[in-house]
């Protein structure tokens, strides 16, 4: 047994519910102490040096395969101009013979454009290159990739390498499918290391192409023991029969109802402020979603769907609301992102017991005066984005995620962003923000009786911090000292 002491353990049952020592036996917490137990207790004693300990963080929406894979490639976020982009790419090592670049945002460089296919060809004439926009909804490829990918429609004669919508998905899925098992396991291993270093003990991850290809679901499912964190798997496809055969309790993730604000493909009820003829795109018909959601619900599958614009959220919410009205079940169906909403939409979410899987860092990156939201939506609609306070006030199950690789997998930064959201009316308390990544997150996967809090009988998943989140003015920079996963201690100092 292990006794952890000289710390403040935040149980996450309420703001002031704490203890000062805990006893771990194997993978579980067996006892809590308000004072140090007697010296004759038979246990290995570990002094945590006045740490503040919280339940292990849980990120409820990641693309961990892509994040891990791209972390083996080129991070283009530091690039200050197009020359930097090309220089970073030129120094990138191939993974299974392919070059990956990510975190590219053309708005952050003076040229305001992607590299062209000819510019990529000069660097890599013989290796396929995939450079993804920061939101994942568009990309650029080189000629080697264009010749290798089996297109369902012929590329135009003046193709410059830029792809969006279905062509973007087809290209990226070709890159992801054409890797050997060793590279796939390596990508997930890298993701697990990154998760652990940022205080996570569990990560929800999407696996699949959002249509019918499950890719490497079984490979990861059969090798979960290789990783130091728990991967909670989402078969990201619309093939219900296959998901039932896999034995998964859930379906979806980033199966798309619409696109993104940055690519002007998020579906809106009113047109884009900077493109008055464009309302974005609903990726499927009402009939498609009604059939899919009804059948999945009737088979007791938890459903998760990517919805960013208010038109897409309304479309999916109507279907969720109807199936819950016709056949009420505690399945905690998810709206992923849930960025642009009205009061009426949130009221309907609460009525139908729908879960809101949020990414607070979206606001940190794209909220505020003259930033992306305001440019594409205008001021009024920007005030209706990322409405954490309004959502929590309605009792909606709300969790925190990163959408990693889109934003950094970093719960402390997500918590900080939720507390200091650009619209003060939508900010939440530090305790509420922590709950998004602990107790609330555990509820999303129906694990609230074993993780997400520090209680006897719960899994010994803990994150040890140098400072208290609840009183810190710099939450994002708090140092993580240790992570404890199922009783195993990982020292990060």
Topology:
Layout: E1 2-10, E2 18-25, E3 28-33, E4 44-55, E5 57-62, H1 64-71, E6 74-75, H2 82-90, E7 99-104, H3 117-123, E8 129-133, E9 138-141, H4 143-148, E10 162-164, H5 165-177, H6 181-197, E11 200-207, H7 217-221, E12 230-235, H8 240-246, E13 250-256, H9 286-298, E14 302-307, H10 310-326, E15 334-337, H11 343-351, E16 355-358, H12 360-366, H13 372-377, H14 379-382, H15 388-393, E17 398-400, H16 411-419, H17 430-436, H18 439-444, E18 462-465, E19 480-485, E20 488-491
Parallel strand pairs: 1-4, 5-11, 6-7, 7-8, 11-12, 13-14, 14-15, 15-16, 16-17
Antiparallel strand pairs: 1-2, 2-3, 4-18, 8-9, 9-10, 18-19, 19-20
Describe, in plain words, how this protein is organized in 3D.
The structure is a single chain. With 493 residues, the protein is of the alpha/beta class. It has 3 domains: 2-55 and 457-491, Urease, subunit C, domain 1, CATH 2.30.40; 65-177, Roll (Diaminopimelate Epimerase, Chain A, domain 1), CATH 3.10.310; 249-444, TIM Barrel (Alpha-Beta Barrel). It has 18 helices and 20 strands. It has helices at residues 64-71, 82-90, 117-123, 143-148, 165-177, 181-197, 217-221, 240-246, 286-298, 310-326, 343-351, 360-366, 372-377, 379-382, 388-393, 411-419, 430-436, 439-444, and strands at 2-10, 18-25, 28-33, 44-55, 57-62, 74-75, 99-104, 129-133, 138-141, 162-164, 200-207, 230-235, 250-256, 302-307, 334-337, 355-358, 398-400, 462-465, 480-485, 488-491. Strands 3-2-1-4-18-19-20 form a 7-stranded mixed β-sheet, with no helix packed on it. The protein has a 5-stranded mixed β-sheet with strand order 6-7-8-9-10, with helices on both faces. Strands 13-14-15-16-17 form a 5-stranded parallel β-sheet. Strand 1 and strand 2 (18-25) form a beta hairpin. The longest helix has 17 residues, at 181-197. The radius of gyration is 23 Å and the shape is globular. It starts with a strand and ends with a strand.
